[in-house]
Amino acid sequence: MVVKEQKALFLSKKGLPISRSSLAEMITKYAKQSGLEKQVTPHTFRRSCATGMIKNSANLMHVKELLGHKSLDMTQRYAHHSPESLRSSISVLDNCYNFATVEEGTV
Predict the structure, then answer these.
(1) pLDDT at 2
(2) pTM above 0.90, yes or no
(3) Domain boundaries defined on the chain
(4) Beta bridge partners of 11
(5) Distance (Å, rounded) from C-alpha 55 to C-alpha 77?
(6) Longest dimension (CA), the chain
């Protein structure tokens, strides 16, 4: 019998892969112990990871690869933009086209 190699991010103390359901149970348990009122799931961490990378100017294609998504559409579902990240993109556009900021009273 050939055993298919399993890829696992988390391993037990015995070095065995932790099942998705066991991981979800552990996350729920520790979230409750920490006093978090919102439901916390493994996907909460994926969203936080993707959002944090995008907020810090990571390339969307790189985020896609790191999260193991097959499409950019899926990555975009996880990555939420913040007002700060959108402002930094406007700054990039401003720098590209050398838009001059007009000071009040100079026109």
Answers:
(1) 52
(2) no
(3) 38-97
(4) 17
(5) 14
(6) 81
